[in-house]
Design brief:
heterodimer; A: mainly beta; 5-stranded antiparallel β-sheet; 11 strands; 55% strand; globular; B: mainly beta; 7-stranded mixed β-sheet; 56% strand
Chain lengths: 114, 114
């Protein structure tokens, strides 16, 4: 069974704070790591797809890093805004040829207080 | 607005009913997915279609029957469901099954089985 864990489960920060959360995944058969943002009453939206050890991606105030050797990825949000409030999901894609599949973590629920 | 459209948004059905969930995308994506999500749990993969052929069936009970009539449409036929099948059913698509193809999700169908 492939285990993808995210921490913390939830996080409450003040507007303007910077924050980060962690995704841990198996370090074997790594193929890709995805990050999604899921706002209430909307659909999950892809933020990043990372495939190489040491990858760093950035989109506005949000960035992510990847360490495939030790099996973790960090998501950083600089200067959090209320509109950043959402559940952030990571998903691990294991290499399995035609049967490679995306396994999601339980997510980190971020609440940004104005 | 999501580019993956799911209908209906909500569905209540009895255990003897037959119903179908529908998913449509017009982005030219060749891979489509069904995920099931229960409260406070990560989305769980059910089925993957690639180029209109079933690639992955995650040992889903036969009371769930997927169908991909063409590259834009994905259905999930439901028959003789159990109350524990109540969940949010998410459809997603991706350009293909390459590792750097992010998933595009619909808003989901909230299913309640009574």
């Amino acid at each position: 069974i492939l285990n993808v864990e995210q921490s913390p489960q939830s996080l409450h920060v003040q507007e303007g704070d910077s924050t980060n959360f962690t995704c841990s995944f198996p370090s074997s058969n790594f193929y890709a790591l995805h990050w999604y943002r899921w706002e209430t009453a909307k659909s999950p939206e892809a933020l990043f797809v990372m495939t190489l050890n040491g990858d760093e991606k950035k989109k506005g105030r949000i960035s992510a890093t990847l360490n495939t050797k030790e099996g973790y990825s960090y998501l950083y949000i600089k200067g959090s805004q209320p509109e950043d409030s959402a559940t952030y999901l990571c998903a691990f894609l294991n290499y399995g040829g035609a049967t490679n599949k995306l396994i999601f973590g339980t997510g980190t629920l971020l609440a940004v207080q104005p | 607005d999501t580019e993956v459209t799911q209908t209906p948004k909500h569905l209540v059905m009895g255990m003897t009913n037959k119903k179908s969930l529908k998913c449509e995308q017009h982005m030219g994506h060749r891979a489509m997915y069904w995920y099931k999500q229960k409260a406070k749990k990560p989305p769980e993969l059910m089925f993957v279609y690639s180029y209109e052929k079933l690639s992955i069936n995650e040992s889903v009970p036969s009371r769930f029957s997927p169908e991909c009539p063409n590259s834009s449409l994905l259905n999930l036929h439901l028959h003789a469901l159990q109350p524990e099948d109540s969940a949010l059913y998410l459809c997603a698509s991706s350009q293909d099954r390459a590792r750097n193809s992010p998933l595009h999700f619909g808003n989901g169908t909230r299913l309640t089985v009574t």
